[in-house]
Design brief:
Elements: H1 2-16, H2 42-53, E1 65-73, E2 79-86, H3 90-102, E3 109-110, E4 117-118, E5 120-128
Antiparallel strand pairs: 1-2, 1-5, 3-4
Length: 132
């Protein structure tokens, strides 16, 4: 008899226990950008900066190609979180990251109204080739 009562109590309790609700993902807001981030002085200034500061690493091989670097341009124009998306060779990757970290502040991206600066992500291909 005791077993039947205990069994019934367990069944009743099991119905009264509610399953935990799944935690919902936080709302992700995608902001439309009105104006992309830009190197101060434009693309020509960016090319000049890279030509001045980029050094072809000393290697035994004649390697040429592109290293793709992705980074965040913060609201104040600082560059943060540079990472290599497409590698060429370790020494070239290090050189590309070094040059990205040397860059001055950029003009940040602007929100959909064009008023407020916002952080944005940018991917920049850095080309390595032997000068003849």
């Amino acid at each position: 008899m005791k077993r039947i009562i205990i069994f019934l109590c367990l069944i009743i309790l099991s119905f009264s226990i509610k399953a935990q609700k799944k935690k919902e993902k936080p709302f992700e807001c995608i902001i439309c950008i009105n104006q992309q981030a830009e190197f101060r002085g434009g693309n020509d200034s960016l090319r000049i900066f890279l030509a001045k500061n980029l050094k072809y690493p000393k290697t035994n091989a004649c390697v040429k190609g592109k290293v793709y670097v992705q980074f965040i341009i913060e609201k104040d124009g600082r560059i943060t979180h540079p990472i290599i998306l497409k590698s060429l060779e370790q020494t070239f990757d290090k050189e590309a990251l070094r040059v990205i970290r040397l860059m001055p502040k950029w003009n940040p991206a602007r929100d959909y109204r064009g008023k407020n600066p916002i952080a944005s992500r940018l991917t920049l291909p850095i080309k390595f080739e032997i000068e003849e």
